Amino acid sequence: MNEKIKDLVGKMTLEEKAGMCSGKDFWNLKGVERLGIPEVMVTDGPHGLRKQKEAADHLGLNESIPAVCFPAACATAASFDKELLKTMGDALGEECQAEEVSVLLGPAVNIKRSPLCGRNFEYFSEDPYLTGKLASAFIQGVQNHHVGTSMKHFAANNQEHRRMTVSANLDERTLREIYLTGFEIAVKEAKPWSLMCSYNKINGTYSSENPYLLTQILRDEWGFEGFVVSDWGAVNERVAGLAAGLDLEMPGSGGETDHQIVEAVKEGTLSMELLDQAVERILERVLEYVDHKSKKDYDMDAHHDLAVSMEEQSAVLLKNEKNLLPLKKGTKVAFIGEFAKKPRYQGGGSSHIQGYRLDNALDSAMEWGDVFYAKGFPADKDAWNTTDVESAVEAAKRAQVAVIFAGLPDVFESEGYDRTHMKLPDAQNRVIEAVRQVQPNTVVVLHNGSPVEMPWVNDVPAILEMYLGGQGVGQACVNLLFGKANPSGKLPETFPKKLSDNPSYLNFPGMGDDVNYAEGIFVGYRYYDMKEMDVQFPFGFGLSYSTFSIGNLRMNKEELGAEDLLKVEVDVTNTGDRAGAEVVQLYVSDKTGSAIRPPRELKGFEKVFLEPGETETISFVLDRRSFSWYHEKIQDWYGADGAYDISIGSSSRDISLSQEVRLTGAVSIPLEIHRNTRMGDLLADPETAAFLKVYMEPLFSMFDKPDGGDAEANEVQDAFFQTIIMESPLRSIAGFAGLSREALDQLIQELKK
User: How many whole angstroms from its chain centre is CA 256?
Assistant: First the structure.
């Protein structure tokens, strides 16, 4: 903390300090005019600026300024491209400076626990490693411009149902491995200026007043140096929140909570030191922005072109039988579905951007030749109209290819509520079924923020997933359909065949104000792959108009010590006749049996663009953490000694190469010894096993068998007696050995030594 900030805080009155800890209104932080501390503005929009056009109203309802709407996180995550996310962040940082915005509220890095979460379109993935790496790149891009980010929502914000009162109940291992890892990666790598706490409780305690999350984990363990801000309206008890590590309350409360802070300091229930810390954290970031303000215009059209390019690199080709795509220029094509004219390109709620322009596919396709349109179904609701269906069928009949633009209307998924099913509107499924019966060359293009069920998946030869692709989605879609761009996106989430396959199905959205994360660490592909369950499309999956081969896996070590790094290299070759990009994915499999773990977990990914015939070497570096799971007994990450597989592939279900590495030097897990410690655990430890030998001899003599007899029966009896011994608690064995309670207590003390 620099001396200028400490000096300013020292000159503030108690009332001014308290005032700095809450907003002036919905979007602005308070300043202190007499000390030269200005007011600054924050604004919504991880994929664009939602800055209000006029003076900020208290509810944040005024129309926002025209801005560039980039693809939402559901789409950009499919790029599997860290550099692309950094480029997007760089563009948004430039826009923030131009529009005098000090902090952009994002990225949103919560895990996609269920396909039903209404806000999934804002979140990256079901995988915490992918989430953290992409979030880190985005944050670095924005903050290169001395503009802050506020990564959200910390933590376990995985549903909209009762989001302001529900308690997410989960064990420590699940919290750490799945729901905190994305935050941890980004905090350590990118150092966001701010973190936004979530609305919900975690194991009964509101995030906004949770010292375990906001201080012990976030600051003490991870080294976070920024300020923590509440989600808008998330504060339960302001003084308790400030003591727990919540620095800034948004929006302002009209002075009510400022007064509570002042009174708490005067009464001695809140220390001035804690208040000063909060003010210093906020002020450091305010002055960082103010000292580097640079109000320069930016090229909005260039940023629009970037939005188009990003969507081209994020869209996922899910199916392409008979190489139906790309379409040849001049092909007679029927565009069916109102999304062709009115694409759904972003989600609803606080991230809704007022895009300054919007490209639709129909207009964008005019340069490609004979393209005509039939409405088929509306874009904004589920409505069945016989005339529209008949016109769609007729258009399909006279075309060489029918492209159906389907997706979820705005009302189907939005911040504020969750979906109740994974289905597309019935009208859309009916049109797809009717069209595919008359036109074998049918392509389905999807506009959606989350997975959808596809009852027609086996009946159409091509499916292109656009997700919510931003204001350039129409142009990007046409470029992909006609081969100007080559699809390279990979699914950042599993598409299950049906909702009931999802691991959270029986525990989403919970009962009353409690939701139990009973599936534990088995979220997304971790569950589906463990169960060997048939899915519609697996995590990491995506096709290309080109083909790629991955080979020559090599590692710098066969055995990895506690502090060693493992370097993994593979060669990737474009074996097709088109330039394109492939995402090489590295998964780690634990073969030690030290814990129940998924078959494989993503621990590395790289995207590489290759010309036909070109080969490039991809490198990964893994540390001990890459092999570890969170061990609650030692309250730390633990990688057991033993064998692990390093697997390389192009999805969690498509593994091309695998090689074993062994870990050594694991920390020792202390054995808890008491009257009910299982004998099998004691005998597995060499030291306790040797000490117990004298006590075990009388016991084994009880089970001696006479010579001769049925060998097979004796073998069964041996196994039976061994099982009894191994599963018995220490107190039972002591009883067989004739030990008194006092002698048993003495034995326990000796074993502990």
Answer: 36
Q: What does the alpha-carbon distance between residue 460 and residue 407 come to, in Å, rounded to a whole number?
A: 16
The reply to whether 231 belongs to the active site is yes
Task: Check the CA dihedral 481-487-493-497 and report its sign.
Answer: positive
Check residue 54 and give its pLDDT. Answer: 63
pTM for the model = 0.95
The secondary structure of 434-475 as a DSSP string is HHHHH-SSEEEEEE-SS----TTTTT-SEEEE--S--TTHHH
How many CB atoms are closer than 10 A to CB 159?
25
DSSP β-bridge partners for residue 22: 249
Helix (H, G, I), strand (E, B) or coil at 7: helix
Q: Are strands 167-169 and 514-516 parallel, antiparallel or unpaired?
A: parallel
Question: What HEC string does 297-350 produce?
Answer: CCCHHHHHHHHHHHHHHHCEEEEEHHHCCCCCCCCCEEEECHHHCCCCCCCECC
Neighbours of 699 (CB within 10 A): 19
DSSP 605-654: EEEEEE-TT-EEEEEEEE-GGGG-EEETTTTEEE--SEEEEEEEEEETTE
Domains assigned to the chain: 15-56+78-290 (3.20.20.300), 300-492 (3.40.50.1700), 548-663 (2.60.40.10), 679-752 (no CATH)
Q: Terminus-to-terminus CA distance in the chain, angstroms? A: 47
Q: What is the pLDDT of residue 685?
A: 82
What does pLDDT average to in each consecutive run of 10 residues of the chain (753 residues)? 88 97 96 95 93 61 85 98 98 97 97 98 98 98 98 97 97 98 98 98 98 98 98 97 98 93 97 97 97 92 98 98 96 98 92 92 93 97 94 98 97 94 98 98 98 98 98 98 98 98 98 98 98 98 98 97 96 98 98 97 98 98 98 96 97 97 91 89 84 70 58 68 82 76 86 81
User: Which residue out of 25, 44, 127, 231 is catalytically annotated?
Assistant: 231
- Give the Cβ contact number of residue 510 at 10 Å: 18
| Cβ-based neighbour number of residue 39 at 10 Å | 15
The encoded tokens of residue 747 equal: 């034995």
Give CA–CA dist 244/212, Å, rounded.
8
Place of tokens 């474009």: 574
Please answer whether residues 212 and 246 qualify as being in contact, where contact means their C-beta atoms are separated by less than 8 angstroms.
Answer: no
